[in-house]
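chain below, 323 aa
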Amino acid sequence: MATTHHIPGAFERRKQKIVEALATPDSDYTDLSPKGSVDRGIIDLIEVINGLEGLVTTSSCAGRISVFLEGSKSQHLCTESGEEYFSESQRSQVAVPGGKGRGGRWLFVSHDPVVAPAVSATEEEPFMRLFALANQRNACENIDLDKTRFVKFQFEPMILHIMAASLHHAKPVLSAAINAGFRESGVQSLKNLEDPLSFPMVAIRSSGLSLASIIGFSGEGDDGDAQSTVNEDYLSMLVKTANRRFLANAERTGRFKDQLLQNNQQPERSWENAHTRRARKRALGLQQQAKLLEMAGRTTSECVEKPELYNDPGSVSRFALHP
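prediction:
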């Protein structure tokens, strides 16, 4: 950003708190994500963003492959009076990434490309085992959709939320995201237009690389392995496709980082005292004035010999650019 814009003190205090939390040793750090820590593949980008004025990251995911079992569509109990309450195990199942119902369970999560498990003499379906799926023939027969919890295989590209001190600081971030291929990015939390303690949030995201497929199901009361609806070859194909998208996601993330740095470049200028600045401004003004006089067919020497030219309202000197 070529122009420096005011950064509220409230923003600086929030940023300092976030940065200090990110500096916590890995052994002591935890967050609300399934992993509980910052993804290794996005740490460098977070450090770059947090090193820029007026910007700070609030949540992030470098990209991931996941297998998720939906929560129950009627996961509640009632007292004799009819009041709902939830058991401790139900309260602990808080992850609901697009699934229906309350709760859910992660069967597999990886923030890196997935390496195919080794095939043993007794285990010919490594991905079934990796994703905690049971392979039974004709498992899809007589499914009650109202009581069925589906298992979803997903690849999700990088997602990043960046709080900005102002819309001026948010603009180059959004521009970098769009140009890098994160087409669904946008600015959220525009309450800052009315509330000085609120700040715009830039969401960096893209659905173009996303991949989702139902690969299994489980009944309402089933606590064991979910039943697979696909075979091992199909799971292998999904993993290979997701791994390729990991590479494309990394390329886009790199382009975003480069574009963001380019958009936030500050022109370097050495420090100068007041006397040096006045002399530079005066020299610049004389150069501009001489150029205008020359364009008008006058020379500087003529103006020195005839100072009345400077007092003439029609003189070209009145059009000189101000330093």
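The CA atoms of residues 126 and 311 lie 92 Å apart. Residues 232-263 form the longest helix (32 residues).
thats it, cya
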